[in-house]
Amino acid sequence: MTLVGYTLPTTNTEPGAPLTLDLLIQGDERHRTLPLTLTLASDPPAAIFTGALAPDAAWRSGEVICRRLHVRIPTATAPGDYLLHLSTPAGDQPFTRITVRPSTRIFELPEVARLVTATLGGAIRLYGADITRDGDALTVRLVWQSLAPLTTSEKVFVHLVGPDGSLLAQSDALPAGGYGTEQWVEGEVVSDEHRLMLPPDPPPGRYRLRIGMYDPATGARLAATGERGERLTDDAVELEIGEWEIGELP
Q1: In CATH, what number does 114-244 get?
Q2: Which residue, among 125, 157, 130, has the nearest Cα to 226 in the 3D structure?
Q3: Which residues of the chain have pLDDT under 50?
Q4: Does the domain spanning 2-100 belong to CATH 3.40.50.10540?
Q5: What is the pLDDT of residue 243?
Q6: Are 66 and 22 contacting, i.e. CB atoms less than 8 angstroms apart?
Q7: What pLDDT, on the 0 to 100 scale, is given for residue 244?
Q8: How does DSSP assign the chain, residue by residue?
Q9: Per-residue pLDDT, 114
Q10: How far is CA 76 from each of CA 49, 100, 146, 191, 192, rounded to the nearest angstrom?
Q11: Burial of residue 21, with CB atoms counted within 10 A of its CB: 0-12 exposed, 13-18 middle, 19 or more buried
Q12: Amino acid 242: pLDDT
């Protein structure tokens, strides 16, 4: 069995960040279930993957297969340059070096105008929101807090619903300008701004925002639960934003 190559999209990363690594390995059927360990040569060394080499592969003799690994850099990793080692019963092989830069993550919760107690998918908390109107635009700043890592990149939806229940404006986007949820680490706080363009002459009455997340590949929303653990209608967090008179600010 031989490591003949690899693909690593980036060698510059930060603590807690996910990495996708493709290993090109030449071998045969005998090697499918051999144990494989990927180690970051930190102090102390950190095993960031442990598992079978290629348990599902139909591996012909001499064939090169691609083994894809999804791993994370440990959150406690200090900035610096580190070797990655691939270990099997055949031996230990350092094969590339990565640079871990200082973390840019935020873990302190900011002040917000509206506190919210809601959880999405059991993994993300909507902590609060700031809502401001500037002419024909409504700016909604959401503050999220990660409760557990996700492997999927969820989109955020923010819907403005009018007094009659109709959808007047919406934003659907990856959070924080493209900072995908699969990159968040436990405890991290993410500020996420959305801008909604209001229709001309919005009717007076009570308006609501409906907020949540969904998988863009399937359209399935993350289950939304309220303060007491109750499932929220349509898996959306609802915020009332008061009564507007035409031409007036909320």
Answers
A1: 2.60.40.770
A2: 125
A3: 245-250
A4: no
A5: 59
A6: yes
A7: 53
A8: -EEEEEE-S-SEE-TT-EEEEEEEEEE-GGGTT-EEEEEE--SS-EEEEEEES-TT----TTEEEEEEEEEE--TTPPSEEEEEEEEETTEEEEEEEEEEPPP----SPPP-SEEEEEEETTTEEEEEEEEEEETTEEEEEEEEEESS--SS-PEEEEEEE-TTS-EEEEEEE-GGGT--GGG--TT-EEEEEEEEEPPSSPPSEEEEEEEEEE-TTT-PBPPEE-TTSPBPGGG-EEEEEEEE-TTS--
A9: 94
A10: 16, 11, 17, 23, 25
A11: buried
A12: 66
Are 192 and 28 contacting, i.e. CB atoms less than 8 angstroms apart? Answer: no
How many Å separate Cα 63 from the centre of its chain?
35
Omega before 44 within 30 of 0, i.e. cis: yes
DSSP-assigned beta bridge partners for residue 139: 132, 195
| pTM for this entry | 0.83
CA 208 to chain centre: 26
pLDDT at residue 205, rounded to an integer? 82
Tell me where in the chain the CATH 2.60.40.1930 domain(s) lie: 2-100
Q: What is the pLDDT of residues 143-159, one digit of tens each?
A: 999 999 999 999 999 99
Instruction: State residue 135's pLDDT score.
Output: 82
Report the alpha-carbon distance of residue 200 to residue 221 in Å, rounded: 30
For CATH 2.60.40.770, the residue range(s) in the chain are 114-244
Take residue 22 and report the two structure tokens written for it: 């493709």
